[in-house]
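User: Sequence in, structure out. Go.
Assistant: Echoing your sequence, followed by the structure tokens.
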Amino acid sequence: MSSLASRRLLREIGQVNVLAVRNGSHGPPVPMQKLLIGKREVVGFGINGEANYVDTVMAPFPAIRFKEDAGEIVHLREKEKGDWKKMTKEEKKVLYRASFCQTLVETEAPTGEWKSITGIILGGISLALCGYMWMNKYVYGELPETITNDELKKAQIERMIAMRVNPIEGFASNYDYEKGRWKE
């Protein structure tokens, strides 16, 4: 792959650092340029020193401006170098929007994403309930008579007491064998 084709590929991918490797030396690669930022001005370090734009409260000053300097913005940049009291409020807002996409308040504003998350959770719960009801109707059989019939339950309890099932900590520990009744 030729160097011209590789550069074209890097331009098509997006913002990529192009590195120049020193010939014959073992030092680190030296950054040469940043592709696809257009004519936007690099104004700071940013989050990690790369020339990219991110609106975040943690790093409120991005490395590059949001918009390119063109048209009205060029004239406002010149006017900005003078007295700010001579600028109108609208001009200051246009300059701000040229440098930043959102204000910090807009960045922290709720997005309403909780609504979709709640909908997905409720949909999952309703799907699970439908699956549970389907399992009860078509998969599980009838309950055994030993659970549903009261006479059979009493007979089973009497048999457990007669066999002294778990007499120390279990079921039979609550029965007083000397008096023949349940402990109080």
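User: And one key feature?
Assistant: The first strand starts at residue 17 and ends at 20.
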